[in-house]
Design brief:
353 residues; Rieske Iron-sulfur Protein; alpha+beta; Naphthalene 1,2-dioxygenase Alpha Subunit, Chain A, domain 1; 4-stranded antiparallel sheet; 17 strands; homotrimer; 7-stranded antiparallel sheet; 29% strand
């Protein structure tokens, strides 16, 4: 049921920028590959294969020395490009004494890594997460680790009818929301989803941060980029005040950024934040939103990890498609095409783990 | 060494009746299949595949609505026969939107499930566990989870010579008991075993609930039905007072019911009780018997789980048969024949997990 | 990367002598085989396959009776040669009712087991661990369990350049030590390594047990016997006082004995001690040395278990050899030859697990 393998020629979020601090080494597994991250003295993030080429000790148990990193097993030293530049007691350094180096770009609070051919790494493909650092938005950084394939989490995010059933007490939704049919637009590298719920109730988490005398209009408009980045415009505003016609006033608006990065075939890194543009000076509002989302995401995780366990133990039979699956079907078909192209045209065979 | 696979066209004990309560969902794995149990408003037990046909979320994380059950991921609703009767936001329900439903019968405190072809489910095949609910007997319900294939537990119960070695301080046995040869009678779907130990000591657990001025006669007479139900008449009475000739007076009698239900190939549900027909109004006697058996069964489990671990790690060589294996050999040969018939004649291929 | 399989026709350390006490049964897995050890009434160590031939219950859950052992599942009794000598309730004992018995020799504090053809077990091949029991040496027995293949630990011990990087605060080493090239001499069944570091600093653990007004000479001279026994002469003495020319006076000397015994392909028993010949009556010195070594070995373990985890999850690519690998290369080539000979000439096929 899970599509196996990964898309390699793509940017993935590897970390929040503050996770990588000069002088400290961060080991993180991405697409099944152990990677050692560190920050150079000039502040640039370096990503090296986390495996010394000598006896396969992890470099992350080593030591940063200037902009280089030393393996603390037998002392081999590597530069940020992965070339070995010192072997204790040995003058000659073999050419093949090197570790893989990965292209990395830090952009608007997130550290992005390119897992495929380095010469195809195009920084202009990195999605714009402006709301994570704009002074007009506030947020608290989120991270969650999942015992599930990343695509099951993406499925979840591509069909918000689950809000009604999984999140009645947090992100919330009525039967009307579950019954809504979103507009889905296919893009070159992703899908755009737009869902409006008019003249309905605000969600429990809305009520914690705003006043709603009557019914409201709610919207969720997002791009979901292959292989796993969601950027969303969502919000809530008094009903029949023109939100859908573009007249936003007194709305509570959010610009959520969410990134799913496969750790392995069955585990996932989930980086997320839900920036808001109101009550900018009230940290308790930012906290309230963060806590609501943590609670809601744990509701999702309980369901999705259970789904993964069923897939693990009973790989038989087909899933029955329903109308609400339209967006996830489109997304998976785009991803499938890109993975197919990569394998057949892109010479990615050697990337397979 | 373990026979692999299972007999499907058969009743298995799935639960004690009190485990399934209206409004609550019980998830239990049986023969490797995740099953969701619930009780209808009329009190009838329903057993559905614990996997929504849509995205394979577990129904047991859902909600009972009347006699139906709703998946709380995207809201699909199923009736007790497993047919999907509602998909939010979708008028048409595809025919294949259904989950498997299993025949279930509640009989004398136990809930029985039929794991094979539904049209072969014959309730008259269910063993009679009268002693679990008769007013002439008292018992406390027992359950134990085993990290071992169910057949190793059945082997244990088919050769009581182990009482002498595994249970010296509980169910107890002398060398005389271990040396006894039981009478074994082969039946169509099981074996009958009869073991008498005359003029010997009572067991430690007997002494806790009865007075024995001298030696005793002890007996164990049981049917063991394929694939895993033991119904036993056992007891103890002053020696040379005619117990073996059928003259029971002042005997302590037990009518044990024990059921082994495979959870997986290497784990087992063990449902059991040891009803007694004396001191019916003294709950401390019922408790004492229950506690003695719990302690004894933990002695068994320690040995049998160790045996399973050895089988797991060293699958080489043959087990050497001894005379005391006669009953377990017969039992396994009957089971083997029934499994063979099922696979070749019964069209059970599709049941294999 | 790991050489798979084991050398069977060889002595392995199975236990410290004090671990095996008359009347107690010790279960230990060696080369993937579960073995039950006990001590006869005359003090001789017995090693039997830890699996009753009847239903594969572990003998180690049994009971020593005189010099025999009884399985406490159904009561079969075995003599020290592994022959079944009693089956309750059965006069005739089948010939094949026996368990494997292993040659065992207790020698100078260690219990050695021969894992191959019993008739090839030659006690003269057992290395001489005199320092473990000589009155001229003192030591505290050490044991460590490793989640790594034994060869990775041997690699570590065959290249002391790692002292500089892994053990700066314990066994210690300067850059000079890491840069040193040891003399390596190939033997019939192992390698001899000799490393001198002249006019350098003492190690942190030296300073805890000795006074050093100035620089010192340090030496490490050891035989490493296939498949895994290291016997070392090491020490420290004031620099330029002739240690290398054989003039030892006021030296702190050690005669370390270390044995790596595979438990499985990925776990290892590590028996070790570091006897010293000074301050023989000061137990705090023995303790200090023991504690320093425990701390240092935990530093090794952290690195080597991490190395094993990388090998486990990413079995691709080659390790890049460096000059410092000379001893481990020789050792592995000798072991490889002996394993090859054993498989092709020695008829060891049936030993493979």
């Amino acid at each position: 049921m899970a599509m196996s393998g990964f898309l390699y020629n793509s940017w993935y979020v590897a970390a929040w920028d503050h996770e990588i601090v000069t002088g400290q080494l961060l080991s993180r597994k991405i697409l099944g590959q152990n990677i050692c991250f560190y920050r150079s003295e000039e502040g640039k993030v370096v990503a090296l294969e986390d495996r010394c080429c000598h006896r396969w000790a992890p470099l992350s148990l080593g030591r940063q020395e200037g902009n280089a990193i030393r393996c603390m097993y037998h002392g081999l030293k590597f530069d940020p490009q992965g070339a070995c530049i010192e072997i204790p007691g040995q003058a000659q350094i073999p050419d093949k004494a090197r570790v893989r180096s990965y292209p990395v770009v830090q952009s608007k609070r997130w550290v992005w890594i390119w897992m495929g051919d380095a010469d195809k790494a195009d920084p202009t493909l990195i999605p714009d997460t402006f709301s994570l650092e704009s002074p007009e938005w506030r947020m608290k950084p989120g991270y969650m680790h999942y015992q599930a394939n990343y695509l099951y989490i993406i499925d979840n995010l591509l069909d918000f009818s689950h809000l009604t059933f999984v999140h009645p007490d947090t992100l919330g939704g009525t039967e009307a929301l579950a019954g809504q049919r979103p507009a889905i637009r296919r893009m070159e590298r992703g899908v755009n989803v737009e869902r409006w719920v008019l003249d309905d109730q605000p969600a429990p988490f809305h009520k914690k941060v705003g006043q709603f005398p009557g019914d409201v209009d709610r919207w969720y408009i997002y791009d979901f980029w292959v292989p796993g980045v969601l950027l969303m415009d969502s919000g809530v505003q008094a009903a029949r005040t023109g939100a859908r016609e573009g007249k936003r006033h007194d709305a509570l608006e959010f610009r959520s950024c969410q990134a799913l990065t496969p750790e392995t075939e069955t585990t996932t890194h989930y980086f997320w934040a839900v920036p808001h543009n109101f009550a900018l000076d009230d940290a308790s509002v930012t906290d309230s939103i963060y806590q609501s989302v943590v609670t809601a995401f744990e509701e999702d995780r309980r369901m999705i990890e259970a789904q993964q366990r069923i897939v693990d133990t009973a790989p038989e039979g087909d899933m029955v498609a329903i109308v609400a699956d339209a967006a996830l079907m489109q997304f998976r078909s785009i991803l499938q095409r890109m993975m197919h192209d990569e394998r057949t045209k892109g010479g990615m065979h050697d990337m397979a783990t």
